[in-house]
Amino acid sequence: MNEDLKQQVIDYSLKLNSTNLSPLRSGNLSVRAKIDDDEGFYITPSGIKYEKLKLTDIVFMSLKTEYDYLKIANSGLNPSSEWRFHQDIYRKKPEAKAIVHTHSAHATAISTHRKSIPPFHYMIALMGGDDIKCADYATFGTKELSQNILKALEKRKACLMANHGQIAFAESLSKAFELAQEVENICHQYFLAIKLGEPKNLTFAEMQKILEKVKGYKRG
Asked: By residue range, what is the domain housing residue 8?
């Protein structure tokens, strides 16, 4: 079972590159896992090209352990430098079974303006709210960034990260990856829309109706 989860991490890491959702070594992803009685997650390693990943490169991190960079260096682990927000999301959101973080082009471009995506399109509801929040900026890998992300993810499954990129979670790695693709697509559409000026946004009342409808929205 655990080898299957590790292979999923590798397969979707390769898809980050092949779909250009996150080129080269950028981005990272994880999936919730359990070893014996230890709840945790498998996460992509730091500094290894996705095309070179092996099962032994995929790192398990516990939700019980309070890691710091020195402990990680001394332990021989080599997780993504962004492991902290993965751990905190899994701790705070039991519904999160997988997390995908990317530096996709349009989401990253919009994140540099540190603005949320307003309800210009009803598909924003797939992310869980009536807008897509942008987490405040903080240095990558820090507790501050992790806290900012959790705030932006309140009642939501995805958000932008200021001057950084985007992050999405779901009940499986395939669905988290698809949600990250949806975020990038929405950001691309918004990027095009604002070239013509500020788009007309859907009303709060309309978005509440849509949020109710998407609760039963299933994709094949």
From this structure: 2-214
Length of the chain: 220
Listed in sequence order, the residues at least 6 apart from 179 whose beta carbon sits closer than 8 Å to its beta carbon are: 100, 126, 127, 157, 158, 168, 169, 170
Amino acid identity, position 98: A
Condensed to tens digits (0 to 9), the pLDDT of residues 159-201 reads: 999 999 999 999 999 999 999 999 999 999 999 999 999 999 9
Indicate which residue of 3, 39, 82, 154 is catalytic. Answer: 82
- Kindly state whether residue 165 falls inside one of the protein's structural domains: yes
> Could you confirm whether 82 is annotated as catalytic?
yes
Q: How many C-beta neighbours within 10 Å does residue 146 have?
A: 22
Q: Which residues, in sequence order, are CB contacts of 10 under 8 Å at separation 6+?
A: 50, 53, 54, 55, 58
Q: Distance (Å, rounded) from C-alpha 80 to C-alpha 57?
A: 11
Total domains in the chain come to 1
Residues 80, 141: Cα–Cα separation, whole Å: 9
Kindly report the pTM of this predicted structure: 0.93
Closest by CA to 183, choosing from 85, 115, 81, 105, is: 105
Rounded to whole angstroms, the Cα distance separating 116 from 10 reads 31
